[in-house]
Amino acid sequence: MPKIRKAIFPVAGLGTRFLPATKAMPKEMLPVVDRPLIQHVVDEARGAGIEHFIFVTGRNKSVIEDHFDRQFELEVTLNERGKKNDLALLSHDLPEAGSASFTRQQSPLGLGHAVWCARELVGREPFALLLPDVLVQHDPGCLAQMIAAAGALEERANIVAVEEVPKDRVHMYGVVGVGPSKGKAFGITQMVEKPKAADAPSNLAITGRYILQPEIFDVLEKQSTGAGGEIQLTDAMLALAKSQPFYGLKFEGRSFDCGSKIGFLAANMSYALERDDLSAAMREEMQRLMGGK
User: Which domains, from first to last, does the chain contain?
Assistant: First the structure.
């Protein structure tokens, strides 16, 4: 498979589950410890070798563009105060000049439509898709594991990250059927959106990481609206699966659904516990809080 150089980040959502916090701040900029959610996801992509970062934005999302740009006034102030470590951190987080692109999804027509909006920036090459609502805590990151698995396939294929979920929760996810293994990946025989537990082909749910072939854009261009009146990515993948193979990868690591309050709070705790400068104090605070429960 050709090298995966580009990644799409759909960041046009309204974040209504986090109102009123997201009234003036995009949900993607909510901090997980001391880094915005979107920065964690971009870090994962960069660690996987992604060279071009494509953000599909919407209204009131300009702060995301500002975050991935230089802020000269801040840099001057930090330099004058001798804050060399902070300056180095800001410099490290910036994408290289010309490696970040931003395009608008002008209508909220779903994930499939958001992906289609990036078609001209991606071109005719395979690409990664990372949903910023999902964090995966592991080194190497989820996308790096997927790219390694894609390289081992030695064929043009689509790959989705999957993880086990309790059987009584499969109705909340897109679930895959499991075919023969090929390296660390396995062939996907079915993709069923939110099945009843009795009808689910497995308990492996699609997580927010994908490697897709450019033919998905051809499908999305003709895709009719599905559930919720939106253009659904799952519908397009089902159509593409008729002519191209799809594989699943059960990745190593723990995922956090930061689109939910509990998932977001759990991510903050878990990422803090992983930090050498915070873990001991965090454990003490957690024990203090739980002591009276």
Answer: 6-259 (3.90.550.10)
